[in-house]
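In response to the reviewer comment on reproducibility (Comment 2.3), we provide here a single inverse folding case reported in full, input and output, so that an independent group could reproduce the run without further information from us. The C-alpha cells appear first.
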C-alpha cells in the first residue's frame, strides 16, 4: 500500500502569531512533525503543503518535499482540511504520483513519534477500514453514558438516548475522542466519498503523556514544559 504523508501548515494563526514556525525548545514547531514523518519506515513519500513562502523555505531546509504551492483559497481561516488534502492528491496525480491512502499529520500535534506513525499504518493496513484515527480515552465524567442533552420540554436526558443511567464508573464502556495527531484515510474515500472519515473507522490509542494540540498561548506553555521533560 502506497501511503502519502501530508503535512499541511498555513502562514496565518490568530491564537499564536506565526505559530507553525515559532521556536519550541530550539526548533520551529513544524520541524517536530517533519522529522517524525521523514523517519517513518512505512510512508512512501512525505509532502509539505503551504501557501506561505517563509514556511515553504523553512520546510525545504529540512529536506521535505514541497512539490507545489497551496492556493490561498485553501489557506484561509475557514478553509477545510478536506479541501487541502484533496488539492494535494490532485496536484500529485497531475505529476503521475498516485497513492492508496493519505496519512495526515498536523503540525499542532508535535510529539507523535515515527514509531507511532508506523504502528498506526500497520493497524490501518490490516483493519480494512476507510479511515484510522488516533484517539484518547474520554474521562469517565465525560463518558456519553454520563452526559446529558436538553429535551424539547426543557428537561435533560442521556445523550445516548438510554432511559437508565449506568450507576457505577466501573461499568461504563470505554469511549474515545479523536486527538488530531494522525488521520489515515483511503484516497478513494477522500475523493469519491468527499470525506476524511468514510463508512468504517478504525483507531489507535495515543500516548496521553505525549499528546498536546497547540491552539492557544496556554497550550504553548504546556508544550514547552512537556518537551523539556522529554529531554531529561
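Designed residues, in position order:
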Amino acid at each position: 500500500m502506497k501511503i502519502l504523508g501530508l503535512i499541511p501548515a498555513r502562514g496565518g494563526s490568530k491564537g499564536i502569531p506565526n505559530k507553525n514556525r515559532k521556536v519550541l525548545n530550539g526548533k520551529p514547531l513544524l520541524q517536530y512533525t517533519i522529522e517524525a514523518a521523514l523517519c517513518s519506515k512505512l510512508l512512501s513519500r512525505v509532502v509539505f503543503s503551504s501557501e506561505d513562502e517563509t514556511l515553504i523555505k523553512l520546510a525545504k531546509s529540512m529536506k521535505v518535499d514541497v512539490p507545489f504551492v497551496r492556493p490561498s483559497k485553501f489557506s484561509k481561516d475557514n478553509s477545510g482540511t478536506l479541501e487541502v488534502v484533496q488539492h494535494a492528491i490532485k496536484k500529485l496525480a497531475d505529476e503521475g504520483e498516485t497513492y492508496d491512502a493519505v496519512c495526515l499529520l498536523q503540525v499542532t500535534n508535535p510529539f507523535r513519534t515515527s514509531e507511532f506513525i508506523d504502528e498506526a499504518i500497520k493497524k490501518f493496513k490490516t483493519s480494512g477500514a476507510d479511515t484510522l484515527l488516533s484517539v484518547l480515552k474520554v474521562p469517565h465524567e465525560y463518558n456519553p453514558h454520563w452526559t446529558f442533552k436538553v429535551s424539547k420540554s426543557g428537561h435533560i436526558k442521556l445523550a445516548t438516548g438510554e432511559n437508565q443511567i449506568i450507576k457505577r464508573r466501573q461499568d461504563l464502556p470505554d469511549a474515545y475522542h479523536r486527538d488530531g495527531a494522525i488521520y489515515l484515510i483511503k484516497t478513494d474515500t477522500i475523493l469519491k466519498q468527499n470525506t476524511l472519515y468514510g463508512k468504517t473507522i478504525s483507531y489507535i490509542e495515543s500516548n496521553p503523556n505525549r499528546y498536546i494540540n497547540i491552539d492557544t498561548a496556554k497550550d504553548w506553555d504546556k508544550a514547552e514544559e512537556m518537551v523539556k521533560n522529554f529531554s531529561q
